[in-house]
């Protein structure tokens, strides 16, 4: 069971005053999150304009590794980032500063090809499952037993429905006898309930401004480190 800090995601620059958008800001923020209980980092590198970019991975990974030596670092490969399958694959193929792992959403058409490319490059794969259909698709992949980790990442905001989807995904994986580490995380309204559920199920979790900006009591979190500290308190409890 670990806590992963997700520093920024696709959030716009005005989402939070402390949203880290540059390589240096992610490096400093990542180091603070490690100090407060995170074991790993998940990043969405940004280009000079502040927009997400797979071309910015090298500079970002380089900066964060210097600030957080020995920490596992992952990035997103979401298809909206480059908005073109070939550009996505070309960017991944050109990386020289390799992340330890990269997230791939099974809801995206090109997911199997992206997974195969990451494996060929020696990069771990976090398989993102947002629905039962995603889980069903995942278990048909010949490489499903090789992934680094499974992300159960439900965006549904109705808590009871979100619970049902998460348990449905877990049931598919169990029936298929998939034995890979699981990380469960919520989004906005489900952020803290899913941290609690992860603790109960002895799964890993993640928190950070990618997934929400409020603490458990509804107050605005000062920064990513405060969100990590709150999650660490739940896991210790």
From TrEMBL:
One Pfam family hit: BKACE
Gene Ontology MF, one: 3-keto-5-aminohexanoate cleavage activity
Superkingdom, taxonomy of origin: Bacteria
Protein's recorded name: 3-keto-5-aminohexanoate cleavage enzyme
Organism the protein comes from: Halotalea alkalilenta
């Amino acid at each position: 069971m670990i806590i992963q800090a997700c520093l920024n995601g696709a959030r716009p620059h005005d989402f939070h005053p402390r949203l880290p958008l540059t390589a240096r800001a992610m490096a400093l923020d990542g180091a603070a999150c490690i100090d407060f209980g995170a074991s790993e980092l998940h990043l969405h590198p940004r280009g000079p304009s502040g927009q997400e970019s797979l071309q910015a991975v090298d500079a970002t990974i380089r900066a964060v590794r210097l600030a957080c030596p020995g920490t596992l670092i992952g990035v997103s490969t979401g298809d909206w980032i480059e908005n073109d399958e070939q550009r996505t694959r070309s960017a991944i193929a050109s990386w020289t500063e390799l992340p330890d792992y990269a997230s791939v959403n099974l809801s995206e058409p090109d997911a199997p090809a992206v997974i195969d490319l990451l494996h060929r490059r020696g990069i771990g794969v976090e398989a993102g499952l947002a629905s039962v259909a995603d889980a069903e698709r995942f278990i048909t992949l010949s490489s499903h037993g090789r992934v680094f980790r499974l992300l159960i990442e439900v965006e549904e905001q109705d808590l009871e429905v979100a619970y049902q989807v998460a348990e449905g995904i877990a049931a598919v994986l169990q029936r298929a006898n998939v034995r890979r580490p699981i990380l469960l995380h919520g989004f906005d309204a489900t952020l803290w309930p899913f941290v609690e559920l992860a603790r109960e199920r002895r799964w890993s979790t993640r928190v950070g401004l990618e997934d929400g900006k409020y603490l458990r009591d509804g107050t605005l979190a000062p920064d990513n480190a405060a969100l990590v500290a709150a999650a660490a308190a739940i896991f210790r409890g």
